[in-house]
Amino acid sequence: MFSPQGPSLGELCVQALSSVERGYDLLAPKFDHTPFRTPESILDGTAHALSELGPFRDGLDVCCGTGAGMLVLRPLCQGLITGVDFSAGMLAQARSAHPDASWMRADARALPFAEDFDLAVTFGALGHFLPTERPAVFEGVYRALRPSGLFAFPIGAPPPLTSVAHWAALGFDLAMRVRNAVWRPPFVMYYRSSPLSAVRDDLTAAGFTVTVAALTALGRRSDGSPRCGLILARKPADAHPPATPAASDLA
Ligand SMILES: C[S@@+](CC[C@H](N)C(=O)[O-])C[C@H]1O[C@@H](n2cnc3c(N)ncnc32)[C@H](O)[C@@H]1O
């Protein structure tokens, strides 16, 4: 399916009946030959928009997969670039494609970093988190950033109600809800569960100051509105350092 080097329909079905982590472990060797890998146009558009806000020191790609986000981080970051993902299979592919970066296996809902980065990005992964899980992801990224650090990621404008894309996303989400109602383990992936307003509210609640820039390089709708925006979530310069246990708590 997708291309001669991509997964077969049978392989995709087995992957979709697995957990998210196991599904990506299985898909990893062929992932870059699927449309699920973030396309270069989105990576280039993001890198171009962020180049006006950098340079940055250390960069983090959350849910890095096979490492697509490194193409954004590498030219923008003068220090270390790191990818984090919970799929060992995806990380193995990323490691061999980008040996200059560091890689860590961790769940994005419990990121193990504290003020280690100046720029964090994420691509193509928000749909893997239920709305109730999103705050933990954003709080973890907030903790991972140094004061004034930036969390940036592209977000697509909802397609018009009359478009094929709208009905395809609706149909996909419905199929996943049925699959998750009747099959364990769940495979959480919903295209319509992360609307801009909810994402913005959750980022603000985590402590970020949020703006949205138009990614006009990715085209406009017939009504002139941009197809894609870039969320720019800034950690305040005067953010308090993460709480460390008091000496008396350790006794
Ligand atoms: C669609 S892929 C995107 C990969 C890459 N960012 C890209 O744009 O090509 C989603 C990635 O999110 C990872 N992922 C999903 N849920 C995760 C979680 N809770 N913690 C860490 N990684 C997660 C998957 O393992 C997978 O590599």
Descriptive overview:
The protein has 251 residues and is an alpha/beta fold. The protein folds into 2 domains: 1-36, no CATH class; 39-158 and 195-234, 3-Layer(aba) Sandwich (Rossmann fold). It is 36% helix and 18% strand. The chain is built from 9 helices and 7 strands; from the N terminus they run H-H-H-E-H-E-H-E-E-H-E-H-H-E-E-H. The protein has helices at 9-16, 20-27, 40-51, 70-76, 88-97, 134-144, 164-182, 196-206, 247-250; strands spanning 59-62, 81-85, 102-105, 117-122, 145-156, 209-214, 228-234. It has a 7-stranded mixed β-sheet, with helices on both faces. Helix 1 (9-16) packs antiparallel against helix 2 (20-27), helix 3 packs parallel to helix 4 and helix 6 crosses helix 8. The model has no long low-confidence stretch (mean pLDDT 94). Residues 20, 24, 36-38, 63-65, 68-69, 85-87, 90, 107-109, 123-125, 128 line the site of S-adenosylmethionine.
Kindly provide the name of the CATH class of the largest domain: Alpha Beta
Structurally, how many domains make up the residues? 2
Number of helical segments? 9
Number of E-state strands: 7
Report Rg: 18 Å
Structural class: alpha/beta
User: Strand-residue fraction?
Assistant: 15-25%
